[in-house]
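Hallway conversation turned thread

IA: we were arguing at lunch whether anyone had actually written out Gluconate transporter end to end. Turns out nobody had. So, for the record, here is the sequence (416 residues) and right after it the structure tokens. Reply here if something looks off.
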Amino acid sequence: MVAAHTLIAIVVVVLLIIRFKVDPVISLVLGSVYLGLATGVGLGGTIEAITIGFGEIMIEVGLLIGFGVLIGALMQSTGAFTRLVRVLVHKVGAHRLPYSMALLLSMIMPSIYVDVQVVLAAPVARSAAPALGKRGIPLMASAIGTGIFSGYVFVVPGLAAISITGLMGIPLGNWLLFGLVLGPLTAVLTTFVMKMMLRTTYWKPESDEDEPLATEFAEVAVGEGQAESESGSAGTVGSAGAGDNGGTGTGGATPDGGAESEQSNARELPLFVLFLPILVPLLLIGFGAFAGLFGFANPVIEFFGDANIALFIGLLGAYILSRATDGNETTGDAMQSGFSTTGEILLITGIGGSLGAVIGASGLDQVLEDLFTANENMPTIAIILLAWFVAAVLHLAIGSERVKYFVCGAFGVSDL
């Protein structure tokens, strides 16, 4: 019965979010309460699991989310990501941009929270989509999605990578070595598979794409000779992309979006300097991980190699760069937008942890353990597939639906 009630809770949560457009926070709390009461956890036990689950996940990723969102908001205000994509298009060409974006997002950007990456990437990616043909929009959307989540799961300091190494006791250095290979490879291969699928009738632009409003997205010049819109794009995409989910405000890091970035003194700085708030934390975490792997770590290295400290250093660098190039007022606006977005993301993430804690308190973990050990002769591939299926179902309920809404809104794709 535990498994049946868990399945009911998951289905209810998914239907409330996707079918009835109920806010994920409310949906997840309702699912948690139902599961706790239906499986005999009890009134007090359900409340305890919800609060403890919220707190535990905040201990693990709370600061990482907050720092990552703020770094993204400040980098958006400087226009660093738009400049980088223009360089990519100039060097590799528009038709290779999906693979370049997937690699970039999976290797360099995991320190920025996933929703913020969508807001940063969507404007420039959408403007390049027409150069890829009539199915350019779904191809660019899939490249962004696979790049973001490949980095999130495989590449340190992606939140999932940090969480998994901690929960399973895997040395961070080992994960870093394998993740830097598996993350980008997964992103590129998935993008290639999507490109092959789009050559069939799988995607129907007339029914799968919404007609974009003229003012919903501003053109972003990513190729030579393409005009820059005066209205900007980053702020507009941020508000549009979150429309189905109550809005996040991430895209409003600067009031004037891309236009302000173009007028910013940040244009005069080398692109490498603008990306130091991301590159420095990666180097610190990587060095700390390898120090632990090869046995020459000490308290100082461990301190600066800690993901929370490394990302704070990145945030401090982003703040200083923004103050120096855009001034105090623009920097304050970017920080305020980041603070607003952080609160919503933290609440949804924490409530997802609450549902996970209630699932654990219900005894489902023991049911799953018995399921995996019931037949010792089960083929390894069958065990892996079963584990994947269980994880996929649980992620469907606990994972962030907001990324899906962002991608759909940002690219004018009909809601799934």
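OS: looked through it. Residues 54-251+260-347 form one domain.
IA: good, adding that to the notes. Residues 120 and 287 are 27 Å apart (CA to CA).
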